[in-house]
Amino acid sequence: MGLATTPTCWAGPYHAFNHWRNTIAEAAGYPLGEVQGRYGPIVFVDIGEEQYTDEHIQGDRDSPPADILFVLLVHSDCEGHIHPEHAGPLADRLEGLIPAVEDTSSGDAPWEREETVASMHRFIAGLREAASTGEKVLFH
């Protein structure tokens, strides 16, 4: 079992999505934190909880955040949606981060960076499809 989105932006394990999102956050300059989970350490984007609400985690917000990347960074990894009006700007932001992800030196092997970039391209394509059709990207 894992995360899937409609339209297809992502299909895969939750832990892979979390790692992918963390890599993007790190490339964008956001800090990562770590907590001890039941089966080992859990790495997460360290954004203060005062910067988002439970509604934001589900994809609901009255207006886009100052950095549209927050739509992805604070989103639940198993439910919710991305509004079509946020999808295009988020796709643009992700596209702009590709060079930074390609150049990252966070310890990932080159093939991991290549897979992260390939996944970014798939996610961007799904976001652009949602924006063009006016449908939400659904996380399930």
SSE arrangement:
Elements: E1 3-6, E2 11-12, H1 14-27, E3 32-37, E4 40-45, H2 54-58, H3 70-73, E5 80-82, H4 84-102, H5 110-133, E6 137-139
- Share in helix: 40-55%
Number of strands: 6
Element-level helix/strand string: EEHEEHHEHHE
User: What spatial form do the alpha-carbon principal axes imply?
Assistant: globular
How are the strands ordered across the major sheet?
Answer: 2-1-6-5
What class would the helix/strand composition place it in?
alpha+beta
Task: Describe the overall structure.
The protein has 140 residues and is an alpha+beta fold. Helix content is 47%, strand content 17%. The chain has 5 helices and 6 strands. It has helices at 14-27, 54-58, 70-73, 84-102, 110-133; strands at 3-6, 11-12, 32-37, 40-45, 80-82, 137-139. The strands form 2 sheets. A 4-stranded antiparallel beta sheet has the order 2-1-6-5. The protein has a two-stranded antiparallel sheet with strand order 3-4. α1 (14-27) crosses α4 (84-102) and α4 packs antiparallel against α5 (110-133). The longest helix has 24 residues, at 110-133. The chain is globular, with a radius of gyration of 14 Å. The protein starts with a strand and ends with a strand. The model has no long low-confidence stretch (mean pLDDT 89).
